[in-house]
Amino acid sequence: MGNATEPAMRDVVVRLEQFRDAVSQLFPALKLDAGVPVRVVVFKDDLSYRPFKPKRTDGTPDDAVAGYFLGGDDVDYVAVSINASRGDPYRTIFHEYAHYLLHSNTDRTDLPRGLDEGLAQYFETLQVIDGQQVLLGAPLEDRMRRLRRNTFIPLKTFFATDTNALQKQDDASRELFYAQAWVIVHYLMQSERAGRPVDRFLTLLGNKEATEDDLKRAFQIDYGSLQTALAAYIAQPSLPATTITLSKRISPDVSVTARPISNADAYLGDLLAHGDRRDEAEPFLRRAAAAGDPTGVASGALGSLLIRRGKFTEAKVLLERAIERDRTNFIAFFNLAYAVSHEKASADGKIGKYSPEETKVMRGALEASINLAPRFAENYHLLAFIDFVNGENPDEAVALLKKGIALKPETDEFKILLAQVLLTQDKYDEAKKIAADLLKETADETVRADAESVLKTIGDYVKARLVIDSSPVARSPWTQSLIVLKRSWLTQADLDQIELNRQINNLNIILERPRPDEDRIVGTIESVSCSNGEISYAVRSQGQTYAMTSRDFTSLRMAVLLEGENSFQIDCGVSFAKTLAVIAFRPPASPGAKPLLTSISFVPDFFVLKSPEELASARSVVVEDDPARKTGAVEDLKPEARWAAIRAKLRAVRTGESRETGVLEKIDCDNNSVVVTAATGGKQLKLFSASPESVSVSWFSPRASQLPLLCGGSRLAANVVITFQRTNNSRDGDGELIALEFVPDGFSLSGRAP
């Protein structure tokens, strides 16, 4: 597309198709399709091209650039001017198309700049002669003259130069860089040592930087030897070129249909947007969107631009319109899901649980995007993020993130989310390794902060486990973290309790950890008052009112862990008496001073704050359907049927064993042994186990699933079936403990309902 004449545009198409055909025959292993469209924008002269030229670091157009390539997830752009006064325009067109091919074959947009530019310059000289002869590697005389007049850039510096460093250089320095890039590639392509040179270059391009070791592996040459060889190479009167006869003739006839574009602004705006020039792109895109936008290009591009500006509600409307006009636009589906996912985020970026309607919209959009573009890694990351925020499907989230990381291994955001999901599965070792590696390697401050948070959470867990496992008063002899319950054992009230426990545990896991010098309480902020330069808070917790203060409002850490749309702003005169919150504060440094309020996390009314020890003891509950209760049944089983289903799964009583139903009064621990005191039928049993691991512990009721079985802990108000074997050893009390099976209240071993 472009504003050049139709014959000129047609000639661009023909020449590009010939170039593509020649490259496909010369290098059959080269992948010619990146899986996304290529839009070639052709400007008739420098005047029309100049507003779209790349910018220098000072904001002025880079007039030295006759054309450029922009890679994108949804579309690639080649922009060129065919102004003949600047030389052969097809050199620029082929140069930019070569960039497209190189990026397509490495799945990277940040290729080592020297090799990327050198290869593009080498390919730009490709000439098709008589339809079957190809001339490759014709010398560039302007590059030769510059190299002969100047000293080579040290190769270590050359190969380390990236795009940002190159843009900061003056024109003369950049021209020398381009000349050296060209001659290095020219020499290595013509060298006998190259073998399959394109394959070797692609290997080099697959690395973020082309190091000396990479060069040695690909071409068996080091920096010193290459520098010497290049000096001799450019001293020749002329450089060698290669003429190759193609296996089949290239026909110059290409079927081209020309038609006017009614929404040119959409494509020009999208070109600017892909170059990250949002302010310049927006007027083009808004004009095109207002004019009807028949293809949806403008709506999709403008929606994407507005997402970057945090205008998610407006973006959502535009993206829905883009999808209506083009249901093959995978990036519009993804962006729609992203806009919905962030639409109700708090001012500091915190995101609460999504509603079922929001989840349905996001999942539908992402599934459509995956069907259209299965290799677009961001789809899998966002799907996993939705699961994580909702506290659902952790196994699915892990699988999605691993798929995304396989497609985009350099993305730290995927890895840190994987670590966070693994935390919810109690897979602390895996999460710790990921977070520790990121902390050593990443430069992203947000990722670093999240990695530190993951490691702190694991540290809290490890400390809690050490307390539980080693303290004579807090050790837990039985630490199962996963319980599987059959649906036939449960009522709807049980299911509701399991879901409530899950939400409470998840909220405690994602809740911000207090700083080392902070305490926490759960309560409400009854009032905020400002007087004489002091901010005062009246905090109500467990029937008591506490006076706190803060330095200012901006330093308060805030989070909203509530479902749906909620907005909170702390200011003088406000009250949050109806909203429960976890309030962190620093105790007063001197008598008479007020505690310093530091953090407010708004939580649901059902929230219960758990200690690290309680969290470490919490168990995940999985409900399985079984033959006695099929999925989809509405009514709960009657008590008799429930008791029968549970009795069928209780541990069978063996010869010499006894079984009683009661409650645990106390668990005492001494070294590795355990003594359990239980109240059963009006009497007390004292049972001993020298090896706690040999005691079978299982659950048939969600009520006891979250109770910590701690040494020295208080009475556990949960019904338990106790199996034991009487012994003659007085040390064993009433006998040896064999099994503990926690059952619902009212459960009957006799088979009679209560």
General description of the model:
The structure is a single chain. With 754 residues, the chain is α+β, with helices and mostly antiparallel strands. It folds into four domains: 6-245, no CATH class; 286-466, Alpha Horseshoe (Serine Threonine Protein Phosphatase 5, Tetratricopeptide repeat); 512-602, OB fold (Dihydrolipoamide Acetyltransferase, E2P) (Beta Barrel); 620-742, OB fold (Dihydrolipoamide Acetyltransferase, E2P), CATH 2.40.50. The chain is 42% helix and 18% strand. The protein has 25 helices and 20 strands. The strands form five sheets. It has a six-stranded mixed sheet, with no helix packed on it. Strands 15-16-17-20-19 form a five-stranded mixed beta barrel. A three-stranded mixed sheet has the order 1-3-2, with helices on both faces. Strand 8 and strand 9 form a beta hairpin. The longest helix has 26 residues, at 445-470. The chain is elongated and about 105 Å long. The model is unreliable at 627-634 (pLDDT under 50).
